[in-house]
Amino acid sequence: MNLFDHAEFKEGHSFNFAPMIDFLFLMLALFATLAISRASLFDAEINLVELKQGQENRSLRAKEDLQQVNLSVSAEGQYKWLAEFAEYPMEDTRALQKELMRQIEIGALPQDKGKTEVLLHIDQKAPWKPIAEAIFAIREMGFSAHPVYEF
User: Fold this and answer.
1) In this structure, are residues 99 and 49 in contact, taking their beta carbons and an 8 Å threshold?
2) Which tens digit of pLDDT belongs to each residue from 36-48?
3) What is the CATH number of the domain that holds 120?
């Protein structure tokens, strides 16, 4: 009578697949991560324009035709009209709209609102409500608003 089965103590001729499966899983995870990061880094739907000889001057002139207006939203949600040499505080979005209309009336901005872009300099700590109100007020006037974040 045997206490132990002798077949359990004999050397087995089996191959352990667990390390190979773990390695293949790690390689699959590595390549999947690389594929996702490559897609997010390089496929950001940025379309570059190919300039042919002679087009360079026309594209630069088109950018020069645009007038820029600089407005800012401070960390406290206050509006300012940024001129070349000074900053003028604005009470609310109605004051921004009135100043835009006044600039058109005096001829500082072109009558065609498509030729004016409003750069909205936004402080990093500014609340969202005044930012949204400024963007909607600018668009309501027919101008294009371009947010610029400052750190």
Assistant:
1) no
2) 776 555 545 545 4
3) 3.30.420.270
